[in-house]
Specification:
Helix 8 (119-154) packs across helix 15 (298-308) and helix 15 runs antiparallel to helix 16. It is built from 17 helices and no strands. The two termini are 32 Å apart. The relative contact order is 0.13. It is 77% helix and 0% strand. It has 348 residues and is mainly α. It folds into two domains: 29-111, no CATH class; 120-344, MetI-like (MetI-like fold, Orthogonal Bundle). The protein is globular and about 85 Å long.
């Protein structure tokens, strides 16, 4: 192999360039390591999800069809779902389908007489609805957290700080269904401004009726905002007490420039992980909010799939949420590296 490379200078130079690129760019090494670890984590999660769902008592076909179903119908559904094959073969076939974007067939839909019931077609619209709900919350969550957290830090131990801190503490301690019910009472029962439920007719988008999104977004925002604001405040307060910030103020720099250049930029790095956790919650923990407002999202679909014992649907939704969690963690780690200059040259 070495003789072949030596006989081709172009190959040797290309290999040298690739090696130099790898060693001189720690961020590239960081991304490769994180994505490799993420894929490994997702693979382990797939094994756990598959084994857990298949460890449930009873035959899936019998549960879906009912106890009065004939053995022929049960055997036919078993064949369609591939449940008559060895467990290892089922897992490998299921994993291969996920890699190619095929999450399998819905047991419930096949039992209802549909010849073809792909999971991807069933979960597509609810997944988009949940993404719209989460993204709408994120658009408000990040700037409001930075604004309120910085304001509270600058007004530390004053009335503004106390108001923001105590309101955040109260909102953060309220369960989603309590805050959501309170908002329904205020904005629907008393003020008659917003609808109490967020109905999205099939074939339409939640964006066609923006009013239906306001109360769910406010509920998610109230719960998530509390923790993020307190984290931003703590970070800014800590930075404002450092000597280089005091020196910048003594040198006569305008206060907005001090806050942006020295305080907020240094305090935002520890807050990135907090935002990542809040976003993970928005994508994976909105089941209560979707159920409260009858919002047709992925959380409501997961509850329905569990109640109907649609194992393939539960597996697909769980894997999608797991992938979202892992991607958010990787992006948060990468943002921390990009924000903190010291980490760019020695990423672990």
């Amino acid at each position: 192999m070495a003789s072949v490379i030596k006989s081709y200078p172009e190959s040797e130079s290309a290999l040298s360039a690739l090696t130099n690129s790898w060693t001189r760019h720690p961020i590239l090494r960081f991304c490769v390591r994180r994505f490799t670890a993420g894929l490994l984590t997702l693979l382990i999660a797939s094994v756990l999800v598959f084994l857990t769902t298949n460890a449930l008592p009873g035959n899936v076909a019998e549960v879906v069809l009912g106890k009065h179903a004939s053995p022929q119908l049960v055997a036919s559904l078993d064949h369609k779902l591939g449940l008559n094959r060895p467990l290892a073969v089922q897992y490998l076939s299921w994993l291969d389908g996920i890699v190619h974007g095929n999450f399998g067939q819905s047991a419930v839909e096949l039992a209802n007489g549909y010849a073809h019931a792909p999971i991807s077609a069933i979960i597509g619209a609810p997944l988009v609805n949940s993404a719209i709900l989460a993204l709408g919350t994120i658009v408000l969550l990040v700037p409001l957290s930075l604004l309120l957290g910085t304001f509270a830090a600058v007004r530390a131990a004053r009335i503004g700080d106390f108001v923001i801190s105590y309101v955040s503490l109260i909102l953060g301690s309220l369960p989603e269904f309590v805050l959501g019910t309170f908002l329904i009472v205020v904005f629907f029962s008393e003020l008659r401004l917003l609808p109490p439920i967020s109905l999205v007719p099939p074939g339409t988008s939640p964006l066609d009726n923006p009013k239906a999104l306001i109360l769910p977004i406010l509920t998610l925002l109230g719960v998530s905002l509390a923790f993020c604001v307190r984290q931003v405040r703590a970070g800014v307060v800590q930075v404002l007490r450092q000597d280089h910030v005091k020196m910048a103020r003594l040198n006569g720099l305008p206060e907005p420039r001090v806050l942006w250049r020295y305080a907020l930029r240094n305090a935002i790095a520890p807050s990135i992980q907090t935002f990542a956790q809040a976003i993970q919650y928005l994508f994976g923990g909105i089941i209560v909010v979707e159920a409260l407002f009858a919002y047709p999202g992925i959380g409501a679909l997961l509850v329905q799939a569990v109640s109907l014992r649609d194992v393939t649907e539960v597996q697909a939704i769980t894997m999608i949420l797991g992938a979202v969690y892992i991607v958010i963690n990787i992006l948060a780690d990468l943002l921390v590296v990009l924000v903190v200059p010291k980490l760019r040259t020695g990423v672990a």
